[in-house]
Write a structure and sequence with these properties.
GO terms for molecular function: actin binding. The chain is mainly alpha-helical.
Length: 340
């Protein structure tokens, strides 16, 4: 009783299955697309959340507003801030990519655009605020760095001036002509160094004016600048005095040396005159006469040296030299020896 199936029924069944398979494939593709769109959407929101979390973290760091207590801490904070600027650049690039993803999602119009647009607007505003805060913090660090560098340079200048003041106020003027000359050479080198620092001292006011108002208006830093100027003035004044004192000491030792030379000459001539006997022979008389003529010339020369000594003594006495009494005594002794 076998009856073959109508071929049309088989064709209909095959067509039906084919149609169902195509419908299933369409549903699968649609489902895949919806899932992919959903994945992109939640990936977008996840990346935005990560960006917001990163922004909140940096906002907390910047909210501390710490700019350091000294030059070392400011340099450390500046280094950390530079690192954060690098991170900010990397995060800016990532946020830009995320924003492009959001724009693509909005272009598809698959999901509601209100939530996406609101999130993008919110994050953009927070990012803009973060960049503003970062810029302000960087400016504060730069201001603090300039201030502490200025303070450090001022402290170094004060320390140098204090050391130089001890040098130029020394009461060592040498013990003879040679040592006084050596001290005078060294002192002139010190005076040159002091003069070279004049520009640095004069520049303090200009450098102070370039500092941020909150730093340059501080009473302590203004007092510090005034102290440096006053200290430099004292150093320069004492340096001039020491130059004069060394020159006076050198003049004294030269005077003593000149007096000694004159007295040696007087001693020699006195001894010669005391031992000299009147010769009996004419030839010997002529020799003695010739020596007296030479003595007369030497006396004129020595007289010139003694006049120079007296002039130096008068200058030292008029200048109030501390050894005026000793110098005057030496002068009187020499004049008495020479018969002036």
């Amino acid at each position: 009783g076998y009856q073959p199936c109508d071929p049309q029924i088989i064709c209909n069944r095959v067509n039906h299955v084919q149609t169902c398979l195509e419908e299933l494939e369409e549903l699968a593709a649609k489902r895949r697309k919806e899932l992919e769109d959903s994945r992109q959407l939640w990936t977008f929101f996840q990346e935005m959340e990560e960006a917001e979390a990163w922004i909140r973290e940096k906002e907390k760091i910047l909210a501390a507003k710490s700019c350091g207590r000294d030059l070392s801490s400011v340099l450390t904070l500046t280094t950390k801030h530079k690192t954060m600027l690098g991170e900010l650049g990397n995060r800016r690039a990532l946020l830009h990519q995320t924003m492009k993803k959001g724009e693509k999602i909005l272009a598809k119009k698959t999901f509601g655009s209100v939530g996406i647009q609101e999130k993008m607007r919110e994050v953009c505003l927070r990012w803009k605020k973060l960049e503003e805060i970062t810029g302000l913090h960087q400016q504060r660090l730069e201001d603090a760095l300039n201030f502490f560098q200025f303070s450090a340079e001022t402290d170094d200048l004060v320390a140098w001036l204090q050391d130089i003041y001890r040098v130029v106020s020394s009461d060592d003027f040498g013990h003879d002509d040679h040592s006084s000359r050596a001290l005078l050479r060294k002192h002139r080198a010190v005076v040159d160094e002091v003069e070279k620092q004049r520009g640095a001292v004069l520049a303090l006011r200009r450098q102070l004016a370039l500092l941020a108002p909150g730093h340059r208006q501080g009473v302590d830093i203004q007092i510090r600048v005034v102290e440096v100027e006053q200290l430099y003035g004292e150093v320069a004044e004492v340096a001039v005095l020491r130059t004069q004192w060394l020159q006076d000491a050198l003049a004294v030792y030269r005077m003593f040396s000149e007096v000694h030379a004159c007295e040696v000459w007087v001693d020699e001539k006195e001894q010669w005159l005391e031992k000299m006997e009147v010769p009996e022979e004419l030839d010997e008389v002529e020799v003695v006469q010739h020596r007296f003529e030479s003595l007369d010339q030497e006396m004129n020369s020595v007289m010139g040296r003694i006049l120079d000594v007296n002039q130096v003594v008068q200058q030292l006495v008029d200048g109030g030299h501390p050894s005026s009494e000793e110098v005057r005594s030496c002068q009187d002794h020499l004049n008495s020896r020479y018969g002036r």
